Amino acid sequence: MAADLSTIVKAYDVRGVVPDQWDEPLAELFGAAFAQVTGADAIVIGHDMRPSSPGLSRAFARGAAARGVDVTEIGLCSTDQLYYASGALNLPGAMFTASHNPAQYNGIKMCRAGAAPVGQDSGLTEIRELAEQWSESGAPEPAATPGTITQRDTLENYAAHLRSLVDLTSVRPLKVVVDAGNGMGGHTVPTVFAGLPLDLVPMYFELDGTFPNHEANPLDPANIVDLQKRVREEGADLGIAFDGDADRCFVVDAHGDPVSPSAITALVASRELAKNGGKGTVIHNLITSWSVPEVVKENGGTPVRTRVGHSFIKAEMARTGAIFGGEHSAHYYFRDFWNADTGMLAALHVLAALGGQDGPLSALVAQYDRYAGSGEINSTVDDQAGRLAAIKAAYEGREGVELDELDGLTISSADWWFNVRPSNTEPLLRLNAEAKDETTMAKIRDEALAIIRG
Q1: Cβ atoms of 75 and 44 closer than 8 Å
Q2: What are phi and psi of 37, to 5 degrees?
Q3: How many helices (H) and strands (E) are present in the chain, helices listed first?
Q4: H or E element: which one contains 106?
Q5: Alpha helices by DSSP H, 282-437
Q6: Active site residue 52
Q7: One pLDDT digit (tens) per residue for the chain, 454 residues
Q8: Would you list the domain boundaries of the chain?
Q9: Helices marked H in 106-154 — which ranges?
Q10: CATH code of domain 157-256
Q11: Which position among 86, 99, 122, 291 bears the catalytic label?
Q12: Would you call 285 exposed, middle or buried from its count of C-beta atoms within 10 A (0-12, 13-18, 19+)?
């Protein structure tokens, strides 16, 4: 392995091709580095269904144990199940997954005790530097007394905790199709949904890290086509799709039409605020719909706008004591889940909201879906900074138009807004636009794209 690990250590996690970019000896060094940077006496580790995950996970455990740290392995789990274990056991944790990336990839999502995030500014840089140093100079000195490696099953306790947060006992029976995409939802859904008034139609529940049916990324419309078709065939009330490590969920209604993650954010926010007496802060990133802060205010809450990315959301959750946070990417964060993201808890909220009234999901979410949105549109560009400067120059000084640079560039007026952000990892600019009607949105979208694409 090369000593420079910057290509695989990203802003929030480790991710790369196995064994080309990283392998088990390097995973062992990451384990030793994680033990040193966290200063923990004990940690918890879990992994997804990818063929390389068990070996990488065990190598990480060996590296940490050699430094005197006791390791609890929870085995196959979703990422939010690992966060549950970190929170419930109050231990730093490591999850081996590459989420929705293709089969040859793997990665590590790390957290401190209580599921607090580890990112570039909160320990990941130091972990990378130690692993680089040791990959050149040899493994660090082992502790005088090595730690133990033991196994523990947390699935039932994880499911019980989630069910304690959302009451589904009195909802009407619902027929729900769930597409696990051969990912970890196939492991968690049967246990979480057990005993609930749900007629479950499972799709692709077989754990298979080669993803034989479709990529486990429900934000790509191509990957929910099977779910949409099955929902209509079954006459189901709704469909739910999980990504590979099952920390994100995506929802379609009885017609098979996608429900925007912003509408889900607004719906869950209204329920969490009701649970908290109409008081509380709700975090949303700057490319969620205008409907999210509107619904939060209408329900007595305080919306707080942040940059895109889970480390920013989690930091604001902690700083403000927020009860809930949502992102356009279908990540949902809960104070009652250690400020961590869990698609499963969001799914339970949707089921409870739908089952608690008589109408279809399309009618329920209509009140939360108020504007015309473009979705995220990526453009490959040679000069990200130059294109952003061109957009700024085109709109600066226009009457009734405001600019802000919290994250990329946001241009807004009374009737529309759009945001352009550079990708951290690719030569892309990402555009999101929204307006009060479809015609205005299309005009603004196309105007921005013309400048972006030169």
Answers
A1: no
A2: -70, -40
A3: 14, 22
A4: strand 105-112
A5: 291-298, 310-320, 343-355, 361-366, 384-395
A6: no
A7: 546 899 999 888 999 999 999 999 999 999 999 999 999 999 999 999 999 999 999 999 999 999 999 999 999 999 999 999 999 999 999 999 999 899 999 999 999 999 999 988 899 999 999 999 999 988 899 999 999 999 999 999 999 999 999 999 899 999 999 999 999 999 999 999 999 999 999 999 999 999 999 999 998 999 999 999 999 999 999 999 999 999 999 999 999 999 999 999 999 999 999 999 999 999 999 999 999 999 999 999 999 999 998 878 988 999 999 999 999 999 999 999 999 999 999 999 999 999 999 999 999 999 999 999 999 999 999 999 999 999 999 999 999 999 999 999 999 999 999 999 998 778 999 999 999 999 999 999 999 999 999 8
A8: 14-153, 157-256, 261-366, 372-452
A9: 125-137
A10: 3.40.120.10
A11: 99
A12: buried
CATH superfamily assigned to domain 14-153: Alpha-D-Glucose-1,6-Bisphosphate, subunit A, domain 3 (3.40.120.10)
Please tell me the distance from the alpha carbon of residue 34 to that of residue 136, in angstroms, as a whole number. Answer: 18
One fold for both 14-153 and 261-366? yes
Region 261-366: CATH code? 3.40.120.10
Q: Please, what is the Cα angle at 390 between 388 and 393, to 5 degrees? A: 110
Beta strands in 40-180 (DSSP E): 42-47, 70-76, 93-96, 105-112, 116-117, 149-151, 174-179
- Smallest Cα–Cα separation from 98: which of 223, 162, 3, 12? 12
Strands (E) in 173-214, as ranges, are 174-179, 198-203
Answer whether 30's CB lies under 8 Å from 118's CB: no
Token representation of residue 223: 């990957």
Model confidence pTM above 0.90:
yes
Look-up of token digits 């975090």? 283
Q: Fold for domain 372-452?
A: TATA-Binding Protein (3.30.310)
